Amino acid sequence: MTTFASGTDTLTRDALTVLQPGFTGTTAPDWLLRRLGEGLASVGLFGRNIASPDQLAALTAQLRAERDDVLVAIDEEGGDVTRLEVRNGSSFPGNNALGAVDDVELTTEVAAELGRRLAACGVNLNWAPSADVNSNPSNPVIGVRSFGADTELVARHTAAYVTGLQSAGVAACTKHFPGHGDTAVDSHHALPRIDVDTSVLQSRELAPFRAAIAAGTRAVMSAHILIPALDPDQPATLSPRVLTELLRGELGYDGLIVTDGMEMQAIAGTYGIERGSVLAVAAGADAICVGGGLADDDTVRRLRDALVSAVRTGELPEERLAEAAERVRALARWTAAPQATDTERTPDTEVGLRAARRALRTTAAEPFTPLTEPPYVAALTPVANFAVGDETPWGVAAELFRLLPGTETGSFAGEDAGRTALAAAGPRRIVAVVRDEHRHPWMASALDTLLSARPDTIVVEMGLPQATPRGALHIATHGAARVCGRAAAEVIAGA
């Protein structure tokens, strides 16, 4: 039974209710349990909170012992962005692989299985899917997190993903509204700007969100991006024109609006998290996501007090805060409803691997003979973007070692990457693994060096396959999930 601490007034409870904070550790700290008793209604989980499915289930049970209707959220896209399998890599390919296959039934099945696993661990809100149309191939933060660059393809797979995820009783949070695909800046570091007219936005960026809304997405996440055609002054997260007039009014969306992480520099670096949170709720946001970087009680207290103070000074209408809090509670009621779950679905533990195999695209100038001797895997490793993180392993070396014991590997970057990799490989056959070759001149140069000296080198592209395929065999996996690496290794070893 949900209980509230005595003396916690309605205004303070509502201010806590709209927060989605994070924390450190694999058990809930005392401060978090106390805040749940005072009105906090949501908790966000990250890779640092997860050690195993059993541990995660125990953690969510601990949270629900304090508040039975708590929303437990996670950033689990599958593919490159995984929290559930942060230590080993995902059992599911990401959006770009699913878009490459272009089988909406498969996308529904993958999302349903992912949702089933989340629900089994007590997670009921997933900050996914990404509905961004990756129209800018140099996008530093979306890339393979997008279903693709074709609007209609992205729209149909976004809807399929929402349907599949929610069939497991896990609320989908479609992101990043109104579309983060045509950006050249990562909003974790600065404020991106999209300079296109409204006709392009209507036909390209907004189409997948319309599809998600039609499919019944229970939540939508705003983007920290400036789109002058919609609002020349405020980023989408802080813009009444974007959140209230466009999303609520024009698109007719009535579910929960969640902000992207408020500690991201696009907001924190300009407005500060307190001011940003007040402006976001005033603009129409219902839940404030914070905790990827700031994950302590002081952050919760600061944001709670900022919202309460804004109401008391008249800057934030009390009815707007109350409306936001009620939308949070309404989503909690939906996640608890028995009719929200698909109890008839049979678990399909291999669906992710099947999808990853179907997503492979191979190019070879001559018929390829699978390897029988262990190769040297040269991973040309770029700096990971913040959303993906650097704690999740990627590549094909581990899977090739399983198939070809004795496989060795090394990680290389920078101007001397090609020469250093050649020296490390010695006489072994080289498998060069790249990620977004088209975005990294040093990586393309390293491949030039490898292929010039060793034309029999096999190239595995685990990012967007924008560069011209080359090598004795070129394999495009459309993502760096563990299952994508396994599917590529099977081809290389003829398994």
Descriptive account of the structure:
The protein has 495 residues and is of the alpha/beta class. Helices cover 40% and strands 11% of the residues. The strands form three sheets. A six-stranded parallel β-sheet has the order 2-3-4-5-6-7, sandwiched between helices. A six-stranded mixed β-sheet has the order 9-14-13-12-10-11, with helices on one face. Strand 10, helix 15 (397-403) and strand 11 form a beta-alpha-beta unit. Helix 1 packs across helix 13 (318-336), helix 4 (95-101) crosses helix 14 and helix 15 packs across helix 18 (482-493). The longest helix is centred in the middle third of the chain and has 19 residues, at 318-336. It is globular and about 70 Å long. Mean pLDDT is 94; it is low at 1-7.
Short précis:
The chain is α/β, with parallel strands linked by helices and 495 residues long. The protein has 18 helices and 14 strands. It starts with 9 loop residues before the first helix and ends with a helix.
Task: Identify the notable features of this structure and list them briefly.
495 residues, alpha/beta, six-stranded mixed beta sheet, disordered N terminus
